[in-house]
Amino acid sequence: MLKRFLLLVYIFLCYQGAFAQKVEILIEDEDEEPLIGVNVYANGDMVHTITDFEGKFILENEPAYDFEVFISYIGYETKRINYQELLRLKKIQLQAATESLSEILIVGRKNEPAADLPYQIERIAQEAIASTQSPTSADALRDHAGVFVQKSQGGGGSPVLRGFEANKVLLVVDGVRMNNAIYRNGHLQNAITVDAAVLEQMEVIYGPGSLTYGSDALGGVIHFRTKMPQLAFEGSEKVTSNFYTRYATANQEKSAHLDFNFGKRKWATLTSITYADFGDLKAGNNYVHFPANFGKRAFYVETSVLDERVEDEIIVNGNPDVQVGTAYSQLDILQKVRFQANDYLNLLANFQYSTSSNIPRYDRLTALDSENPQDFRFTEWYYGPQDRFLASLQTQISRPSTVYDKALVIAAYQKIGEERFDRRFGRNSRSFQLEDVQVFSVTADFDKFLHANERHQLSYGLDWNFNDVQSEAGLKNLQNGAIERSEPTRYPSGGSQMNTLAAYSSYRWKSRDSILNFHAGLRYTYTNTFSLFGANDPIQWSPSYYTEGVRNEDGDLTWGLGLTAITPNGWQLRFSTASSFRAPNLDDFSKIRVKDGFVTIPNPNLDSERTINGEITLGKLHTTANSKIQVNATAFYTYLQNAIVRSNFALPDGSFQLNLEDESLRTVANVNAENAYIYGASANVKIDFLQAWQFFSTFNWTYGRRLFPLEEGFNTEKLALPLAHIPPLYGRTSLRYEKGDWRVEGVLRYNGAKKVEDFAVLDVQRDIQTQRLIYLREGSADNLEQTPRCEDGNYCIGTPAWMTYNLYIQYTFGKLSAQIGLENITDVHYRPFASGLSSAGRNLILGIRGAF
Question: 227-251: per-residue pLDDT in tens?
Fold first, then answer.
């Protein structure tokens, strides 16, 4: 029934845009390029429209009409022109406004003007990504945005927004949510499956985005926007291509990219392919901040499979700065086809495929069972090829109708494959876990202006998302290839599903002079998660687990309010308050995971995590004849309720112990146990001076605590303990010179220190003799065990502060550009907070780009 309803909605929308007349009036900029989405209106409802993808709009030839028409576009001066004069001109050219608080940014799934939105937004343009030659999308976020990125392996990169990470940060690519039912609460590497080489821009929308995007956007939304196929607005066809090739010394990166656009007047196609091969990463050798020899890879393991045995041999690393076990390769392919059916109906088919080689989990490969540097816990620990396939059809309609003025419908299918393999040192059998996830989704967004002057706008939409998860596991004997099904599957072996339905509505009011913007909205989301366990699972579940299955249902109503004020003299004020939520997914309530003597088991009674957030941004733009200074500062506060944490949890038979193979495991589960709060601030300053120079500096600071209930007798005391995923103060300062064919930029990147006492606490115990509280920190997502130890064997340093100096040079000659980058010039050894490997030492990057 649902599929029929969605099909009828889709047919109705297409029908609304199927019949249109030829546009007779063109609006363009000073370079004679068409302007898309220009507002054209008059008092009353006599005229009310916007320009299409060719910069044109319909105007009826009515001799009786004699009134003024307003033509407005963000960043351009508004024109007032008589109706009859407009008919005679047939073409209007808008002039850029002499002062604008910020460049025109279109962000999010709905392509909204960033200037109208009441929350902090950062845009990373294609040119910025290319200037630093960022190898992955995660690296581009680290290099250019106020985003902290954690890494546990070479093929990784887990963004942190305002103290939230992994499944509490929503990733979106071309309007389609990437977060699926098995996104975990630890560190994720899924961001690198989006090809940085084909991005038009990345948009970081800070704070709760649940109103538009639904669950998971507690810390914010990262929207990856890939390039659009370009139509031939002028001439018979448009043919363009871009390529680059790059080499880097720190990890012997060898990468190449090619994209090709072919466009006609009504249709266009874009094809992109990128291949990158990364060797083992070499860390810095200058131990200014870290203890000498920390992070050295003195030994590693090589395996030989013989006829009678599997032999693991300890190898002495010839260069301990090289982190053996970080190499991998990746292939990304994109194909887009765009069809401009008429002036109001645009269709876009989008196909993306990303795959990789095996990706070693470096932090697990370096884990030891004792202080002996050769006592490795694992010989093998790696992710199999990380596969992501996306197919989507986007329908965009810009012809005003009774129920909407603009409509956007995106239907998508995704298939994600995850594989994990590990083998203990000296054992013959390799453990494997294989997950297959299929995601079906439809989003429909509608905008309706309630008055011809477009000061009142109603937005509403529907959202449906369905996940199907299949999981298998076992042991493979490396000598004879025999497979045993004695290992528990990561997710229930009988299959799991997660179904989400949502509807939202919001209202926007703009003052007559466009200085004030007010937003208010509501969204209701319903989630239904189901898992069916196998009767032959190694864990003996209650019979209902594999006959009826386990179900978790939840619904949530979220709200948001926001106000934006942008004055003509350059002042900017943004204020917003909103609620958000994250519904428990399959990874929360039905995952089975063995780690460090514990096994995580299902808890069907989980509730959603909920937040209430407030933020305020104050900015000022000052412009003179030779310079432009822009300063922004943001402060935020988030209160988190029903935080999902791990706690001791009984099996269906009431016991807390599970025996698997030769290991006795303590049972734990995710529970709603605590509340938490996070607050912080960020600021940036940008100065353009002497025409060719730009100075930019930004910093970010976050503080988070969880309220831990310490029960003693009849009393319960709540301790404010450090919350996981809170990075230390970090930032970036750059100075850039750009003139003619030259672009030179010096960049300073830095992180503050993170003391041991500020690392996350998993549990608190009281020493019986001294009555002193003991804080247990190992095993959290903060990865304290990946930090240095002192001579007494205790963690006493935490994460030291660090700073790197970097230089990027680009020279353009004709259609080609030669690029040289020199990163970490002083070869300092550093390891970012919570990361499982040290970052690159001195790194020379050589690249060449071309655009034809």
Answer: 999 998 766 888 999 999 999 999 9
Q: pLDDT tens for residues 656-694?
A: 887 776 677 888 888 887 899 999 999 999 999 998 999
Please provide the distance, in angstroms rounded to a whole number, between the alpha carbons at the two ends of the chain: 49
- Ranges of beta strands (E only) in 233-287 are 238-248, 253-263, 267-278, 281-282
Length reported for the chain: 852
Q: Which of 414, 304, 396 is nearest to 352 (CA)?
A: 414
458 alpha-carbon distance from chain centroid:
28
SS3 825: coil
Residue 620 in tokens: 């000022």
Give yes or no for residue 13 having a pLDDT over 60: no
Q: Structure tokens of 425?
A: 């040192």
> Both tokens of residue 196?
């940085």
DSSP letter for each residue of 223-236? EEEEPPPPP-SSSS
Read off the DSSP letter of residue 116.
G
- 564 Cβ neighbours under 8 A, 6+ residues apart: 115, 116, 117, 118, 516, 517, 518, 519, 572, 573, 574, 575
Q: How far apart are CA 331 and CA 352, in angstroms?
A: 11
Query: Contact 508/519 with Cβ under 8 angstroms?
Result: yes
Residue 800, SS3?
Answer: coil
CB neighbours of 37 closer than 8 A, spacing ≥ 6? 50, 51, 73, 111, 398
pLDDT at 211 exceeding the cut of 80: no
Q: How far apart are CA 392 and CA 173, in angstroms?
A: 11
Beta bridge partners of 343: none
Round to whole Å and give the CA distance between 243 and 255.
Answer: 11
CB 753 within 8 A of CB 709: no
The DSSP H or E segment spanning 131 is helix 126-132
As a whole number of angstroms, the distance between CA 470 and CA 434 comes to 8
Mean pLDDT of 723-737: 95
Residue 800 CB-half CA count within 13 A: 18
With CA atoms as reference, report the closest residue to 779 among 709, 724, 720: 724
Give the SS3 label for residue 770.
Answer: coil
Distance between CA atoms of 233 and 227, rounded to whole angstroms?
A: 17
Query: How many other CB atoms are found less than 10 A from the CB of residue 12?
Result: 12
At residue 344's C-alpha, the angle toward residues 239 and 444, to 5°, is: 105
Bridge partners of residue 518, in order along the sequence: 509, 563
DSSP letter string, 617-668: EEEEEEE-SSEEEEEEEEEEEEEEEEEEEEEE---TTS-SEEEETTEEEEEE
Taking a C-beta distance cutoff of 8 angstroms, is the pair 726, 781 a contact?
Answer: no
**602, 647, 712, 725 from 764: Cα distances, Å:** 24, 12, 12, 19
Provide the pairing of β-strand 91-93 with 25-28: parallel
Q: How far apart are the C-alpha atoms of 646 and 668, rounded to whole Å? A: 6
Q: Which residues contact 513 (CB under 8 A, 6 or more apart)?
A: none
Residue 534 banded pLDDT, cuts 50, 70, 90: confident
Q: Token pair of 512, please?
A: 């007559």
Residue 92 CA to residue 27 CA, distance in Å, equals 5
Q: Are 414 and 389 in contact (CB under 8 A)?
A: yes
Q: What CA–CA distance (Å, rounded) separates 112 from 37?
A: 11
Count of other CB atoms within 10 angstroms of residue 463: 22
Q: How far apart are CA 720 and CA 784, in angstroms?
A: 19
Is residue 71 within 8 A of residue 27, CB to CB? The reply is yes
Find the angle CA(164)-CA(601)-CA(776) to the nearest 5 degrees.
55
